[in-house]
Design brief:
14 strands
Amino acid sequence: MKLLILEDNVDAAEMLAEALQCLDDGYQIRHVTRLEEAEDLVVSEGVEAALIDLSLPDADGCEAAIALRRLAPELALVALTGKEFDTVAVELVRHGVQDFLNKGTASARRVHEVLQLAVERHRMESRLRRQACYDALTGALNRAEAEQQLIKALSHADRTGRCGAVLVIDVDDFKHINDTHGHLAGDIVLKDLTNRLARVARIGDSLGRIGGDELVLILEGLEDRRDAMAAVEKIAGTTCYEMPVNGSLVPVSTSIGVAIFPDDAASAEKLLELADQAMYSAKRLGKSGFRFAAQVESSPIGPRL
């Protein structure tokens, strides 16, 4: 197990590390004394579990757990506390801490047992979370989780003063693909399209499946509409291609509707509605293109893009 010990008492941490390695020589242990060092380590190295002291020189209480959970969602967390039941216990559980240990009384064997259980529990929780949040076919976010990410993106845009875009992406002639090549071919096209969009998306963007052949891509941190236009043009260019399926080349193209936030709307529901309307407008204009919500409002039959 790759274990991080975040503890400012160097002697105590070294004694614990030595005792754990005597119990199980499979431990690969790194020790740091500050949250800043721990953040660098979990980003640069694959760590499975972390023992976190609740009182550090640069973090106190929940701060370390919150920071590490944000950086490394796959990390199993166990808190080291000087009390039998720390006053921040409930809050820490909300932020993904799996268990607590009294660092004054817990034996090395007890620490070892708790760590093993914490890692297994976190793996199970991650599997359940993935089932609840992700689409089984494509691996993209499901509709409910995509809507939650859009709500968060709206809040972030409000705090930073920057804008974002919601793209509703629909596969053109998807029924024809299913009818001609079979539903398995349709599934292959959807998975391939999702992978292409995931590769072109930036860090921080969110990709979800919101319908049978409808995907949504949420772009954050844009400067203005020109920035959004450049991003949409790049994305549209990746969604028009041919792919081999069952010995045949299947043409794939999409129609994309775009709504800008907060300019076009300030709620997730309305943004998705506007982007969906813009997508259908793009289909009516000949498919294999994109359309902005503002264009639909100003002209129902504007130029094809």
